[in-house]
Amino acid sequence: MQIGEVAARTELSLRTIRHYEETGLVVPSARSQGGFRLYTETDVARLTVIRRMKPLGFTLDEMRDLLQATDRLDSAVELSRPEREALVATVRGFHALARERVADLRTQLARAEDFAATLADCLAVADEAGPERDDGVEAR
């Protein structure tokens, strides 16, 4: 599929996808005869992982490290036990970090919801007081 369809499916902009290509996070699987980037379902899945990491504050280098680890684990290449254990430890570390960051986001969301509720209460009190004139005397 071409980049426009990938952008629609991943909810990423064309510019962002091109940036991820420039930084080596994702590489189009092929090019058309006209030179257009062509992507596979695997590429879309990779971009989806990247998109999910972004709100958790992962850097491009961290994204690259995780993707390299999962690529090696998913490859058909035989891994030595120490290499496999190191890769699994890397993924476990990212999992723990993601869980921490999700918990932090939940705390921030709860605070934001409390703030919105405070504003709603303020508006409810203001609405109950009724309209007032500019001179501070209630309108009749």
In short:
This protein has 140 residues and is mainly α. Helix content is 67%, strand content 3%. Strands 1-2 form a two-stranded antiparallel sheet.
Output the keywords.
140 residues, mainly alpha, single chain, two-stranded antiparallel sheet, 67% helix
Please tell me what the overall shape is. flat
**Beta-strand percent range:** under 5%
- Helix and strand element order: HHEEHHH
Average of the residue pLDDT scores: 92
Euclidean distance between termini CA atoms: 67 Å
Any low-confidence stretches, pLDDT <50, length ≥5? none
The secondary-structure class comes to: mainly alpha
The count of β-strands is 2
Our count of helices gives 5
- Quaternary organization: single chain
**Strand arrangement across the biggest beta sheet:** 1-2
> Percent of residues in helical segments?
55-70%
Biggest sheet layout: 2 strands, antiparallel
Radius of gyration: 24 Å
What layout of secondary structure does this protein have?
Elements lengths: L2 H8 L3 H9 L7 E2 L5 E2 L2 H13 L6 H15 L6 H49 L11
Antiparallel strand pairs: 1-2
